[in-house]
What does this fold into?
Amino acid sequence: MTKKYQIVGIGNALVDVLAHADDSFLTENGIEKGIMQLIDMDRAVDLYRKIGPATEISGGSAANTIAGAAHLGGRTAYVGKVKDDQLGAIFAHDIRAQGVDYKTELAAADIEQETGRCIVLVSPCGERSMNTYLGATDFLHPDDIDVAMMANAEWVYLEGYRFDGPDSHEAFSKANKACIAAGGKISLTLSDPFCVERHRDAFRAMIKSDIDLLFCNRDEMLSMYQTDDFNAALAQAAAEVEIVACTDSDNGAHILSKGQRWHAPAVPTEIIDATGAGDLFAGAFLWGLTSGHDLETCGNMGCIAAAEVISHIGARCEVDLMALFQKHEFMAS
Amino acid sequence: MTKKYQIVGIGNALVDVLAHADDSFLTENGIEKGIMQLIDMDRAVDLYRKIGPATEISGGSAANTIAGAAHLGGRTAYVGKVKDDQLGAIFAHDIRAQGVDYKTELAAADIEQETGRCIVLVSPCGERSMNTYLGATDFLHPDDIDVAMMANAEWVYLEGYRFDGPDSHEAFSKANKACIAAGGKISLTLSDPFCVERHRDAFRAMIKSDIDLLFCNRDEMLSMYQTDDFNAALAQAAAEVEIVACTDSDNGAHILSKGQRWHAPAVPTEIIDATGAGDLFAGAFLWGLTSGHDLETCGNMGCIAAAEVISHIGARCEVDLMALFQKHEFMAS
It folds into this structure.
C-alpha cells in the first residue's frame, strides 16, 4: 500500500535573514566563517543592528530539504516549531505554499522567545556564515511528534542540528520508532562538522540503532569517525548503514550501499550563495529514491539541485528542478 | 552653507512580499496586472494564503528612492510609519543599514493595523502587480513632520501614493513649507496612473504651488494632463515646474527644463522584476542633481540605476551603482 508521505522531515523551523558581509566584518564580530554558530537573542539583536540591508527567506535545513522534495512533486510533511508572530507566519506560509503538510502546534504565546531565525552572512565568494538564534524552534517536544504521521512515512528525515535541542533526542526516538514499526526507514543529516563535534556519541548511537541512510559532507564524515582518511571513514559509515550519501563540494558526491560505490559529479555553476546546497542535495536524492530511481541517479539529481540553489541567494529552489533533470537526461522530457 | 541632507523622502513604509504568479492566477484572483491596487487586511490575508513561497525585502516607493541615493553616498533621511512588530523592525533595520537617517515615531501599539506590506506578484515577463495593505503607514500625521529636518533638506521628495492617506496632504504641506522657507526645493513622483486618477486635482494644485521637479512615467504623464499627446503633456508639465523627469520604459527617459529637452537612453537588461525601476531612477537622478551633475547626466544615471534594479528580484539596488556609473563613463574611475 502506498504511504501517505514519501518523506517527513523534522528540524529547526527558521527564517533566514540574508545579508552580504566581507571577511573583515566577520573577523571584527567574531564570526567563524563557513559554519553554523548558535547565538542568543541579545547577540542576534546586536548582530542584526550591525549588518547591512537584508532579505528574509524561509529556511531551516530540513525544511529546505522537504521544500525541495515537494517542489519535485513529492508527498511530504514537516515538523518544526514557530511562534504566533510575523516571522512564524512567513515560515508556515512558505512551506505550506510549496505543498508540504505542516501542522506543528505553535509555541506557547507566553514564552519570551520569538520565531527562530538564522542571520546568514554571505561572503563575496558565496561562502555563508550562519548565526542561528533558535528561539521557538528549540521548544520542539516529543508531544509534537504525531505517530500516525510517522507511520505513514516511507522515510523520516532528521536534521542533525535539532540534536542541540533539549527534548529533541526523545522526539526523534519517538518518530523513528513509529516509522520503523510501520515498515518505514530513517535518514539523518549530520548538518555541520561542529554539530558532529557536539553530538558525536548521540549520532553514533542513533546511526547504529535506527539510521538507514546517512547524509553528510566530507568534513562531517571525517569529524564523525575522527580520522583524516576519507575513504576509511566512508567505508566505516557504509558498514553501519544501508546507504551513505556524502557530498564533497566541487568533487560532487559519493554514494555507497551494500558494497557498491558510485560517484556523482558536481554540476558547474557560479556560486552566489552556498546556503542550502546540502539541503537540496538531500531533498532531490530522497525524492529520487522514493520515486523509484537508482542510487546513482539519485546522486546526480542531488548534485543538480544543489547547483541550482547555490546559483542564487536563498536556500529554497527557484527554478523548475524537473526541467533541469530532463535537460541533464535523468528524466524523460 | 551645506545642508545636512541632500534628499529627505516621505512615503509609505512597506515591506515587499515577492512571489511569482502567472497570468491565470492574476485573473482568477481579480488582480489588475502591472499596477498598484490597495487591499484591506482581510484581502491581504486571503491573497497571502493563495500565493506561492515568497521572499520578504524592504520596499516602499520613496524608501527605495532614498535607499538608492544613500547607496550612492548621498546624505538622506526618510519619513514613513511602521508599527513595533517584526516587519516594522525589518523595515527600520534595512533603511538605517543603508545609511538613511530614519526616526519616524512608531505607530501606536494599540492600533489594530500591522506594519504595511505590498504583495508583489511577479509575472514570467518581469511585470509586477502590486497589492498594498497600507496598515500602519496610513497613520503618518503632520506631527510626524520634523520641520527642522525639512529645513535642513536641499530637496524633499514626496511619494504620490501617500496622497491616499487621510492626513498626508497636510503632512506634505507642512514639509514643503518648512523646506521652501529655508531655500530648499520640492520634488514629487506621481507614482502610478491610477494614483493620478485618484488625486489629479490635489497633484495639480501642489505642482503649481510647490513642486520644482516632477518625476513620472509616460502613462502617469498622460493621465495627469488627460491627453493622448505625450509631447503636449510634457510641454504642459515643463511649463509648470522647473524640471520634468519622465521615464518611458524601454525608450529611456525625457528630461525637460527651462525650454531645453534631453533624452537618456534605456540601458538594455534582462527584466527579472520591474519593481523599483522608477524609484531607483529618481534616487540616482536626485543624487546626481545634488552632487553637481548636469540634467542629462542625471537622466543617464537614473536609467543605469533603473536597469540594475530590474535585473533582480527586489526594489533595492544590489550592486555598486557608482561602479556602474564609472563603467558607463558618467563618473571618473
Summary: Residues 5-12+60-111+136-327 of chain A form a domain with the UDP-N-acetylmuramoyl-L-alanine:D-glutamate ligase fold (CATH 3.40.1190.20). DSSP finds twelve helices and 14 strands in chain A.
